[in-house]
Amino acid sequence: MGTEGMAEDDLAIEHVFGNFHDYYTFNPEAERIRFLSPSLRSSLYHAFHKQKRVYYMDIGCNEGKLTKAVHKALKNPQTLAAPTTETTFSVDNICLLNEKLQKHHQNPEYVTIEDGGTGHRKHFIIHVFIANVFFGVGDGVSKKIAKAKAAGQALERLNSIEAAEIPTSATEIPVTEELAKTTTEEPMELYTIGIDVDPVLIDRAQSLVKNDTTLHFEVADVMLGGQLDEICKNHLENSECFDLISCFSITMWIHLNHGDAGLIAFLNLAASKTKHLLIEPQPWKCYKTAIRRLERLNHKIPASFRQIQIKQNVVQVIESHLNDLFPYKTSLGKTNWSRLVLLYSKEPLNSPPKAK
C-alpha cells in the first residue's frame, strides 16, 4: 500500500474511534475551559482544599492540551482572577465585533487568503481588516471557525487600544470579597491523569509535561475489563475514587463501538469511580455525521454502528441515567457546536439543584 493509501486508512480509523490527531486545531481547548467559570472553580476548590491530595482523570484526553488546561485551572485558585491572553474561539465573536464597530460606523472585511487541506479535511485561513487595516487572522476546518477566530483577535486588539486610552486606575478589576478570599488560599495538591486509546496521542501528551510529576498520561481503554480498576490501583493513594472525572466528546465513540449496553456500562463505570463527573455527550446528529464521513472515505461501516437502538434521544437517555447515579446536576451551558456540558455530583457544590 502506498503512502497516500496508508494516510487515508489512518484517517478512516480516526473516524471509527474518534482519536483525531489534529483535534485541537478545530475544537480548541479554550472552548471547553470557559465552562470552568470562576464561581465553579471556586466551588470545586473549597470542596477539595481540605484533602491532602485531589485526583482528576480525563478520559479520552487526545493529545493532552485540554487536560493540561483543566489541570492548571483547577490547581491554583489564583488563576481565577487572571485575565486570559489567548484568543477564545467563539462564534459569538463575529456578532460582538460587528456590534463594537457599529458605533464607529465601520464594518469588518473578511478575506479568505487560502483554501487548503485535503479532500477529507478542509482548512481555511481568513484575515480580517477594519478600515483597510489588518486586525487579525484565524484558521480552521470551516470558514465559520476561521472567521470566528479572526474576529476574536480583532476584538482583543480593539480592547487593548481602548484600554490604552483609559487611565490605569480605571482599568483595575475590582476584587470581590469571595474572590479575595479564594486568591489568598494555597494551591491545592492536584494529581491529574489523562488516558486515551491512541499511543501516538499519548506520546504527544507526555511531551507537554516532561518535568511535571503531578500530570500523567498513559494509554488505556476503559472498556477493556479491569483497566480502569488498574488505573485506580496504580494512581490513587488513600482514596477509593477520583474527585473529578471528565469525559469531553467521547460518549458517541463508546456507544458506536460498544453498543447500547456498552454506553450504559461506561456511564456506570465512570460514575462508580468519581465524586464529580464533567461530561459533554454528543447528540444524534453527530452520529449521522460520523457515519457519513466514513462513507465518503469508502470505509466499511462497523457492524456495531448499525446495531445501536438508542438514537435521537441519546442525550436524554444519558442524562436520565446519570440522574439516577448522582443526586446533583448542574448544566454549565452549551459549546459553540451546540453540545451540553453537564456536571454531575455526589456531593453538593454551593447547593446546586437536584437532578430531575
UniProtKB/TrEMBL annotation:
One of its GO terms (cellular component) is cytoplasm. Keywords: Methyltransferase, RNA-binding, S-adenosyl-L-methionine, Transferase. One of its GO terms (biological process) is methylation. The keyword Cytoplasm does not apply. Signal peptide: none annotated. Its EC number is 2.1.1.-. Pfam families: Bin3 (PF06859), dsrm (PF00035). This is RNA methyltransferase. Residues 37-349 form the Bin3-type SAM domain. Belongs to the methyltransferase superfamily. Residues 92-160 form the DRBM domain. It is an enzyme of class 2 (transferase). InterPro entries: Bin3-like, Bin3_C, BIN3_SAM-bd_dom, dsRBD_dom, SAM-dependent_MTases_sf. The keyword Hydrolase does not apply. GO terms for molecular function: O-methyltransferase activity; RNA binding; RNA methyltransferase activity.
